Amino acid sequence: MIDKNSEHGLGHLLNPTDPESDDRDWIRHLWTFIVATVIGADRVEPDWLDRPALGRITISSPTMLQPLATWNETRPYAQQIKPYNFLLVAHAAPLGHPPGADPEKFTLIAPYSADATLWAGLMWRNLHDPHGPTYRITTEDWDHTLGGQPADLVVVTSYRDVLHRYMRHPEAKSAGPEGNPCRHDTTGLLGRRQVHLTSGNLHHIGKEANKIDDVQAGTVTALDDVVNDYGTPLDILAALVWPCIATLSNVDIAARFDVAERTVARWRRKDATPRDRHVQALIMLAVDVALDHLNRAAIDHPWCDLPLAAARRDWRTVLAFHLDRHEPEQPRCPCGCGAPLRPRQNYATDACRKRIVRRSAPPTPGATAAPRPQTQLTPASRPHGAQVGTAAPIDSLDMSRTRAADPSRCLVGW
């Protein structure tokens, strides 16, 4: 006795005995047949296994109604197929398409009929070829010893084909008893399958619920038509992170992350993919800069009274809020001269670059370094989370104010 039978992968098909009925007892009969086959018990084959396995869809767009324009031209309005009427959908079997047809653009539809015995005799049309010919369907494989398959004949899947494929379909999300990915012949107690994610192939997508009824009915053959792909982490960096830290030069970021300046330049141009730790560090840096910009501009935001950790956890919203409310600042030369930088420009002049090089050179033996200035923050200029009267990390300070105080020490601590 079957306690609960799964309808996954079968729910889009019509009841082969009574298409008008919502009774799904026919799926229980299939599961009884499957279990009896596995354990070697006596089994009774349903008499409807050789009928075409059809689905039903609703005409919800002009694209779905267009292939039936010829049908409607020869009939009075009362007999025409109208929007939101039902259609039957047939699924071509592997190698069952007519000669020259594109399997990715071939879905058969026909006017709805509740009589399952008439399905094989209906005139079918290709949903993706509105002005194409009509087709006949059959569930029997074509005998090629008799010659080529007729151009108007399509071999479609039957409930028997669905049953055989269902029995041999591997459970991709589970692992077998030995811990290996499931195969078509795996049996036994299944467990969770371990998945290892590689950041280079990571894509952010939306829920696959667009046209879910059409996908389940089989009228959508390419998932790219319904899946929203929001891109890779590089796209997220370009959309949210880099605009927030546009005021920081490649030199500043390179010194902070201990990487080469040209590496940061390649990150900005999307010529290279940052490592995971660098991606996280760039995001956290962008959050700190975004909050500092919002505080200095006296813009009220939801993270005013929250700890910095809470803002970092909600980094997408923080960065999007910053880009929406904060007017972007033009990046300035890192040498402290205050000159604006053009796109892909690291220094205002060659003299500025040399000035940075001289500051980065090791000190001369016997020379003493000037004492590091201590910057006191006022309530209007303190970064997020800092207290009045305490020295905050220089990487969270307003760099333009620090350079104005002492341009010769603008890179100290980075």
Q: Give the overall shape, derived from the CA principal axes.
A: elongated
Provide the succession of SSEs. Answer: HEHHEEEEEHEEHHHHHHHHH
Which structural category fits the helices and strands?
alpha+beta
Overall pLDDT metric: 77
Rg on CA atoms, Å: 33 Å
Distance between the termini: 71 Å
| Structure annotation, total helices | 13
Q: Uncertain regions: pLDDT < 50 for 5+ in a row?
A: 375-383, 386-414
What's the structural domain tally? 2
- Largest β-sheet summary: 6 strands, mixed
**Beta content:** 5-15%
How many distinct beta strands?
8
Strands of the widest sheet, in order across it, are: 1-2-3-4-5-6
Amount of helix: 25-40%
Region (Disordered): 1-21, 357-414
Biased composition (Basic and acidic residues): 1-10
Biased composition (Low complexity): 366-375
Written overview of the protein:
This protein has 414 residues and is an alpha+beta fold. The chain has two domains: 1-183 and 197-229, no CATH class; 233-362 and 375-409, no CATH class. The protein has helices at residues 25-39, 62-65, 69-73, 159-168, 212-217, 233-244, 250-257, 261-269, 276-296, 308-313, 315-325, 350-360, 399-405, and strands at 54-58, 86-90, 108-111, 124-126, 134-138, 153-155, 174-175, 191-192. A six-stranded mixed beta sheet has the order 1-2-3-4-5-6. The longest helix has 21 residues, at 276-296. The chain is elongated and about 95 Å long. It starts with 24 loop residues before the first helix and ends in a 9-residue tail after the last helix. Mean pLDDT is 77; it is low at 375-383 and 386-414. Residues 1-10 have a biased composition (Basic and acidic residues). Residues 1-21, 357-414 are annotated as: Disordered. Residues 366-375 have a biased composition (Low complexity).
